[in-house]
Amino acid sequence: RSLAMAAPAVHTLTKPPPPYTSRHVAVIGAGAAGLVAARELRREGHRVVVYERESQVGGTWIYTPKTEPDPLGLDQARPIVHSSLYRSLRTNLPREVMGFRDYPFMARADWSGDPRRFPGHAEVLAYLKGFASEFGIEEMVRFEREVVKVGLLDANDNSKWSVKSRKKGNGDEEDEVFDAVVVCNGHYTEPRIAEIPGIDTWPGKQIHSHNYRTPEPFKDQVVVLIGSSASAVDISRDIAPVAKGVHVAVRSSEGENLGKQPSFSNVWLHPVIKLVHEDGAVVFADGTSVYANVILHCTGYKYHFPFLETNGVVSVDDNRVGPLYKHVFPPVLAPWLSFIGLLWKVVPFPQFEFQSKWIAGVLSGKIALPSLKEMMENIEYFYAELEAAGIPKRYTHRQSKTQFLYNDWLADQCGIPGMEEWKKGMYSAASQNKLARPETYRDEWEDDDLVSRAYEDFARFTS
Ligand code: FAD
Known about the structure:
By secondary structure, this protein is of the alpha/beta class. It has nine helices and 22 strands. The strands form six sheets. Strands 9-17-10-11-13-12 form a six-stranded mixed beta sheet, with helices on one face. A five-stranded parallel beta sheet has the order 3-2-1-7-22, covered by helices on one side. The protein starts with 23 loop residues before the first strand and ends with a helix. It binds flavin-adenine dinucleotide (FAD). Flavin-adenine dinucleotide is lined by residues 28-34, 51-54, 59-61, 82, 84-85, 89, 91-93, 98, 146-147, 184-186, 188, 231, 307, 341, 348-349.
C-alpha cells in the first residue's frame, strides 16, 4: 500500500444539500499557494482576505539581491528576507507541468520574454502575476501587512479566529475576526543548518543557501558545500567557474561517484563532514580533508509558523507539522484551520490547486470530512507506516512518487478530474532526464510527444 494513501477505511458523510455556506476566510501569504487558495475560496462563495507582508504577489519567486544580516539565519530577531532564489535560478521542472490547470504556463510574449521550457525565475513571477491579474485576485490582498498572531477568539469555539496583522512602515496593528484561516506562508525561509563538531573555533565563513545570490563573493575561495538537493547542485555549478575549489559533502553517496567530478576541473564530491579544525581544515567521514574558506549549508529549511497560537494542537516536531489530516487539516481544529503547500518533492502549483478546492468545498459544506476519530486514526496509521518503512520524521511531508495518488484522492473528494496523465508522464520523463543528463537536462530532452499533448490540452483554455 502506498504511504500517501495509507489509511484505515474512512467513511464519507452524506453531503449537505445546497445552498452551501459562505465563510469569512483569512489566507496568509500571496505566493502561488495563497493566490490559488484565494481564487478557489472565492469561487466557492467565500469572502476572502489575503494578508501579504510584501508589496507584490509571487512569494518565493520575487528575486531580490538583498540578503539577511545573519548569513546562517539563526538569529530569530533578524530582519527576514523571504525569498531564497539565486540570480541564475532556472526552474527544475518543465514549465508545462508547473502551471495551474486552466491558466497554462506556456511560452507567452507578454510575460518576461523567456520562452525556455525551464525558464528563469522572472518568468515564473510574471506567470503568477498574470494569474493574479487574470482572476482579479489582487483585490483581495492586503499588501505590506504581516500576520503576527493567529488564535482562537474563544478557546471553546473553534470557528472564530482572531488575526492580528501589522502594517509595514508605520507598524499600525489591525485585528479582524474570521471563520477560518488558511496558512500559505511558504517553507523556504527559515534555514536548517548542519551540526559540525568543532565549528565554534573554525576560522572560516559560514552561509546558508537562503542567503546565496551570486557567485562573485566566492572568487578564488575554497568552498565546502553541504547537501545534495536541487539548490546544492545548482549552486555548486554556479560558483565552480570562479571558485578555487568546490567540495560538495553529501549524506548518501549511493550511486554517486565520490572524488573529482569528471565534467569540472575544480569540483569534488565527498562524504559528510566529520569535524573541522581551528586551522581551517575540514575533515570528511573518509578521513580526507581540505582547507576551506567557506562552508555553504544547502541543508534545507524548517517549517515555521511564528504567528500561530494553537495551544499545542498543531506543532512542528523535527520538521513534522502535525497532526494533520492529509497534510492539510489539524483534526481538532478542522476545517477552520488548514495548511496549503507543506509537501515537498512534488509539482507544487497543481497540488496547491487541488488542496485549495478541497478546503473551499469543505468550508462551504459541499464536501464532508470524516469524523475527528477517523481523521486521527488515519494520521496515526500514516505515521506508523512511515516508521515501519524507516522513513525519518523529518521526511513526513516529502512525497515524490506518491504525489499523484494523493492529488487524485483530493480530486476525487472534489468530484473533479485528477491530474492530467500527460503531466504525470512528463514529470517522470523530466526526472529521468535529469538523472541521465544532470548538466544539460534543462536544454536537452526527449519528451516532445508529451509537450505536444500538453499544448493540445492548453488549447482548451487559450483558444
Ligand atoms: P511562497 O512562495 O514562499 O509564498 C509565501 C508568501 O507568504 C510570501 O509571499 C510571504 O511574503 C508571505 N508570508 C509569509 N509569512 C507571512 C506573514 N506572517 N504575514 C503575511 N504574509 C506572510 N517550484 C516549482 O514548481 N518549480 C521550480 O523549479 C521550483 N524551484 C524552486 C527553487 C527554490 C530555490 C525554491 C526555494 C523553491 C522552488 N520551488 C519550485 C518551490 C516553490 O517554493 C513553489 O513553487 C511555490 O512558489 C511555493 O509557494 P507558496 O505560496 O507555498 O510559498
